[in-house]
């Protein structure tokens, strides 16, 4: 285990932060002399940053939240010291990552805060009541909670964070208050816009201690929301079940279990990454062949994640191949509970004033595991330099227009806008627990010069090594990146089946979404009719005027509202198809072309 101070000084690999590598590796050889000069990447970072700064805020990379991340300084240092001894894993407390469970907590999450007092019993009771009521409402219950239950949520006691002295207790408190908040906000349709103080205050306080935003996150719905069926068998796919659901349906259970099963691959992936970085330190012939072998296993494990997702599109995944997520239930009944939004949080300001914040809902895009793989392989999601002056001009114009809209919107609220230079992946990292975000930062820092020790060796990234040794390492590197590309190809298919296709289908007539869907359908119908009439009129005009050569064929422009409605947003609020395709394309770009199948895949 490593202290925060020495981690900041820049340890040479993940092993240094406590991700001990049980895989036979040469960590005892760390004193060997470096056999190569420091490799310089040829990217012009300054001009890339300049381009990032121009991104319009509705760009896919400027994905929600628009509320800036909460500063790390809000994490109470005194509390941190008290909580640290409780991270009783073999991994570094600094990063809350375990060799045995990866980004999942090393022990079964706390299932309930009953008995710790200070109002938490009432919150647990309320969760049980609301889960029961929703489970009895056909169609998922979004927007259909009884007034009495909604009222009772508003009148809960203000739970105190005082007894939450350990990470496991805080995790449960966040999961509990975030779920209750989403139950309350989506209890009506349209949703509520004010988070009552009894939910907002403990949610914000636990969020600040965990380095999370005050909204439901991937950590609340996957990482911290499981229990073991048999306590003696330990954490494995056939011995785990999800808890704290919205609809209690088997589809919702399967949806979260899918991500959990992916996370179960975390420990092995992290060990292999760690061992590879240890070897990268030397990069001699032996090390390169070891890294190649590790990369082959990494590619195989990524393919297992892809296979899990392939099973999900067929409705058969999991240990017994029987897990099934109904795409309709996911889209119309489960997913609406996750939605974030621009909400007023009562009483959470420094002087107890209300604050308006806007956050997106949970998404597996917040999985630290996938971000770590991208960082490890050097798959770069940062915005690229515009390829032509015209494109640059278009982006600049879009920025100006966006800024004008933002100014108008800002007048109406106390909302702060996020800087537009953050990439989607960076933004998603603000939805990760603070420790995991710090882990990613640490991974990045491994390959950057340490200002405190300017003459110290900078560890080459795997990509840099593969470029330096195209014959020895290139093919293995490319195969791992190709595995990530297959993962993203399959993920796009998943998003198509579960979101794009469902958005085109009619919801159930008794669903709260039906009226909205019908309005949109009618608007589209009107638009199509108008376009057809305009074309017919133009054609008639051309036919009747033999002298006309100008071909004045025009169409009535579609209304902006309809166009906006046509955009299908992701669970975290992105323009889905464009965004996921771009993530896939960035992965393809990382392929060096060394593997035999590189060109073909
Ligand atoms: C039915 C299952 C799934 C659906 C419908 C789905 C949908 C989406 C959507 C809509 C996005 C766009 C970003 C957003 O708006 O949040 C996204 C992003 C993402 N999802 Fe999923 N997802 C599913 C399962 C998974 C699983 C199992 C993983 C793996 C842990 C995963 C990993 C990611 C990642 C890493 C991103 C960021 C984009 C990228 O890196 O390619 N998703 N997902």
TrEMBL record:
Residues 1-20 are annotated as: Disordered. Belongs to the indoleamine 2,3-dioxygenase family. Heme b binds at residue 491. This is Indoleamine 2,3-dioxygenase. InterPro entries: Indolamine_dOase, Trp/Indoleamine_2_3_dOase-like. GO terms for cellular component: cytoplasm. GO terms for molecular function: heme binding; indoleamine 2,3-dioxygenase activity; metal ion binding. Residues 1-13 have a biased composition (Low complexity). One of its GO terms (biological process) is L-tryptophan catabolic process to kynurenine. The lineage of its organism: Eukaryota, Fungi, Dikarya, Basidiomycota, Pucciniomycotina. The keyword Cell wall biogenesis/degradation does not apply. Keywords: Heme, Iron, Metal-binding.
């Amino acid at each position: 285990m490593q202290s925060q101070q020495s981690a900041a000084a820049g340890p040479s690999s993940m092993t240094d932060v406590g991700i001990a590598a049980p895989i036979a590796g040469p960590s005892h050889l760390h004193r060997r002399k470096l056999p190569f000069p420091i490799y310089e990447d040829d990217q012009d970072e300054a001009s890339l940053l300049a381009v990032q700064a121009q991104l319009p805020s509705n760009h896919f990379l400027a994905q929600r939240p628009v509320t800036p991340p909460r500063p790390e300084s809000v994490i109470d240092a005194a509390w941190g010291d008290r909580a640290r001894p409780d991270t009783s894993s073999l991994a570094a407390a600094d990063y809350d990552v375990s060799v045995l469970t990866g980004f999942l907590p090393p022990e079964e999450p706390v299932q309930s805060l009953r008995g710790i007092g200070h109002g938490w019993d009432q919150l647990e009771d309320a969760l049980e009541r609301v889960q029961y009521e929703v489970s009895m409402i056909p169609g998922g219950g979004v927007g259909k909670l009884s007034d009495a239950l909604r009222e009772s949520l508003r009148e809960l006691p203000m739970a105190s964070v005082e007894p939450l002295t350990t990470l496991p207790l805080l995790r449960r408190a966040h999961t509990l208050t975030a779920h209750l908040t989403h139950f309350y906000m989506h209890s009506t349709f349209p949703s509520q816009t004010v988070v009552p103080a009894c939910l907002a205050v403990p949610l914000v306080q636990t969020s600040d201690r965990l380095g999370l935003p005050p909204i439901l996150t991937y950590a609340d719905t996957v990482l911290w929301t499981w229990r073991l069926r048999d306590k003696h068998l330990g954490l494995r796919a056939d011995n785990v079940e999800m808890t704290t659901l919205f609809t209690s349906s088997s589809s919702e259970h399967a949806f979260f279990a899918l991500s959990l099963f992916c996370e179960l691959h975390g420990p092995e992936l992290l060990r292999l990454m760690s061992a590879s970085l240890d070897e990268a330190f030397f990069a001699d012939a032996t090390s390169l062949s070891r890294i190649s072998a590790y990369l082959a296993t990494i590619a195989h494990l990524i393919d297992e994640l892809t296979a899990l997702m392939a099973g999900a599109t067929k409705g058969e995944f999991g240990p017994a191949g029987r897990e099934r997520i109904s795409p309709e239930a996911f889209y119309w009944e489960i997913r609406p509970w996750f939605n974030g939004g621009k909400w007023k949080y009562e009483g959470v300001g420094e002087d107890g004033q209300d604050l308006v914040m806007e956050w997106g809902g949970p998404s597996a895009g917040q999985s630290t595991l996938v971000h770590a793989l991208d960082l490890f392989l050097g798959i770069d999601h940062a915005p690229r330099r515009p390829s032509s002056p015209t494109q640059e001009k278009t982006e600049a114009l879009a920025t100006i227009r966006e800024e004008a809209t933002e100014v108008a919107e800002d007048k109406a609220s106390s909302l702060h806008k996020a800087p537009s230079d953050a990439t989607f992946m960076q933004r998603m990292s603000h939805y990760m627990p603070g420790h995991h975000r710090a882990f990613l930062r640490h991974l990045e820092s491994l390959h950057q010069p340490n200002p405190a020790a300017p003459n110290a060796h900078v560890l080459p990234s795997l990509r840099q090594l593969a470029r330096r040794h195209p014959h020895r390492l290139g093919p293995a590197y490319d195969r791992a990146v190709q595995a990530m590309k297959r993962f993203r190809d399959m993920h796009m298919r998943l998003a198509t089946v579960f979101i794009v296709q469902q958005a085109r289908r009619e919801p159930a007539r008794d669903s709260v979404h039906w009226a909205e869907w019908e309005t949109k359908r009618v608007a589209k119908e009107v638009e199509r009719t108008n376009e057809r009439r305009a074309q017919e009129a133009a054609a008639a005009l051309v036919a009747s005027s033999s002298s006309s050569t100008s071909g004045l064929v025009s169409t009535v422009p579609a209304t902006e509202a309809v166009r906006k409605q046509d955009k299908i947003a992701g669970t975290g609020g992105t323009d889905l198809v464009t965004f996921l395709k771009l993530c896939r394309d960035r992965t393809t770009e990382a392929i060096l072309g060394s593997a035999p199948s590189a060109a073909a895949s």
